[in-house]
Design goal:
With 401 residues, the chain is of the alpha+beta class. The chain has 15 helices and 13 strands. Helix 4 runs antiparallel to helix 6, helix 11 packs across helix 12 and helix 13 packs antiparallel against helix 14. The structure holds thymidine-5'-triphosphate and magnesium ion.
Length: 401
Amino acid sequence: MDAKQRAIIHIDMDAFYAAVEQRDNPELQGKPVIIGGSVESRGVVSTASYEARTYGVHSAMPMAEAHRLCPNGIYLPVDMQKYRRVSQQIMGIFHRFTPEVEAISLDEAFLDVTASQRLFGTAEEIGYAIKGLIKTELHLTASVGLSYNKFLAKLASDMDKPDGFYKIAPEELEAKVWPLPVRRMMGVGGKTAQLLEGMGVRTIGQLANMNAGLLEHILGKQGLVMHEVANGMDNRPVEPVRESKSVGRETTFPQDIGEQYVLETILFTLADDVCHTLRTSGLKGKTISIKIRYPDFRSITRAVTLDSYTASFEPVFDAVQQLMRDNYQDGTPVRLIGVTVSSLKKDDEIIEQPDLFGDDSRKVRQQELNRVMDKINARYGGDTVHRARKLTGRDKNGELF
Ligand code: TTP
Ligand code: MG
């Protein structure tokens, strides 16, 4: 297909965190609302409602400065759980039109709607339909950019904010994009922009019309890419984030370690961490592996597959410990070790095989314990409750403990 035939949409919510708070508390509507950390903790502004932006308040500004600029603003803390929930609803709306959704952050995504047009109408109609659903179902506004590649779609969504809709067709590149300042190009940060501006290259159009070889000479390969993009060539696909296939943790030691009991204690912590991540992600896994890297960078990976899916610490660590004992010779120096759980499934996709003959009560107790620990850690911060490990091994003098 001709690269200019693609229909790519970029959607970005308007003043996202602030808009959600204004929606949920009508008293805040029409007022300058600023979301961020506290002045006492030297916090910064996460976002500001458009009313607050007229005072000059913006993201990443120190909160103290925001208070100076906008003393009558309404200041609220960040409620990530709430914004995550809303984000899932937004992404749900996108998925009604295409599976090709690439979420960039909570409030922003690319959609490839090229193939959706047969079912849902033109790309414009799809863009407006999505805006409409976000408004009627979620009572929020979004800005939509439509074009034939990712760079231009993202540029477009920013052209008509808030509550905007902006399209850049192939024949409009010169009229709509080339006059924009070169800083609006992706990959052009402060330094590159200064360099280009120093050479008299102030607009995207001037960049597009430079000699590509010269740009490459000045900026390296990135210069070539920028030249193409400025000329409307950006073939990057929209890449839906596939589900993670494994969860792992590994650690490299500042100095090599050659004592089995120390290594096992570290594996204990890594396994606990992996299981915690699995549980908070609603995942369970079946294959447990360890990785050992030696000082000469030779690595081994050894794995075992369990009978059932789990996110509980005990079966995972039992397997890890067994793998270690089968594959590691005490005294051998090790540079890195790691634990990974793979063959993952979503919690709710697993059909539990009831253990008709065995004793399930230990398993139930473990699950209950894990659940309580995660709850406490979620409320009071990651490190509040740790499993105490009874160390069995020998200390440096060879004494058992
Ligand atoms: P943005 O989309 O950059 O900003 P926004 O949605 O608040 O406003 P608009 O798009 O209309 O310009 O970021 C989305 C959310 O991400 C934002 O609501 C808060 C959060 N965020 C931060 O926490 N820190 C930051 O520095 C930025 C830029 C955003
Ligand atoms: Mg936004």
